[in-house]
User: What shape does this take?
Amino acid sequence: MKQLYHAVAFLVVAIWGSTFVFTKMLLLSGLSPAQIFTLRFIIAYVLLLAYELIAKHATFRLFCTSVKDEFMMVLLGLTGGSMYFLTENAAMLYTTATNTSLIVCTCPLFAMLLIGLAFRQSEHFTKMQVAGSLMACGGMAAVVMNGHFVLHLSPIGDLLAFSACLCWAVYSLIMKPASMYYGTLLITRKVFFYGLLTIIPYYWFVPGFPSFEVIFSPEIIWSILFLGVVASMLCFLLWNWVMRKLGAVVATNWVYFNPVTTIFFAWWLLNEQITPWFLLGTILILSGMYLCSRTS
Assistant: This one.
């Protein structure tokens, strides 16, 4: 069954790696990063809530059993939703895509560190797992930098990218206790709901939202539907399920593979070149992830 969990993790990361094409199309059509995030999360939340109500799911509930647990869901929506997407997309306005990808995709290292510190009694990482994570991180750097070892430092942009990295690491940390007491459907729905709720203050400072005519235009609606239905609802459900099965550290290491799928889709759809650095980095990532999956 472990092979199935890893296959699902790969599928999710592959889909997330393809979203840059659709996001770029929406940005070129005039939508802002916050508007894109809001639309995709609204679609995902409505569909997931409708599914649970229509199916009359036995475990359906609107609220958690305690205020403390509800606050935990707020943090999941904030770190895995609004803050993550805002900081990652905003970083692109101040720094290069290379810098952003390189910093954001190091989140598995920070997730391992945070989880190790928070759960010292139950989480013990072997030397092989640590070495595998470092190897995968090196492979990710080789893929992202693509043989051009020149970084364009931008304090604001790099800080925003690092904030996105920490957001996803904290999301992985909080998912560990959350998944012990609540099901995947409830957690995912809460992530969407509180992601939307915590994005509202942004619109106080940057008001404006696209009209229905713009949203339902052919060049926009299909991209929004893909991001909302597939990349958000289905992928978040599958990802939270995989984190429950594989553990937060092992599952999060699949994030290292994100640049590989992104470059593959760029080669497939945009005819961008695949270099030997891409192949070397891919081998290092796969080898490192194999070591991370070993428990001894």
Remarks:
- The two ends are 19 Å apart (CA to CA).
- The mean pLDDT is 80.
- Residues 267 and 274 are 7 Å apart (CA to CA).
- The chain is about 80% helix and 0% strand.
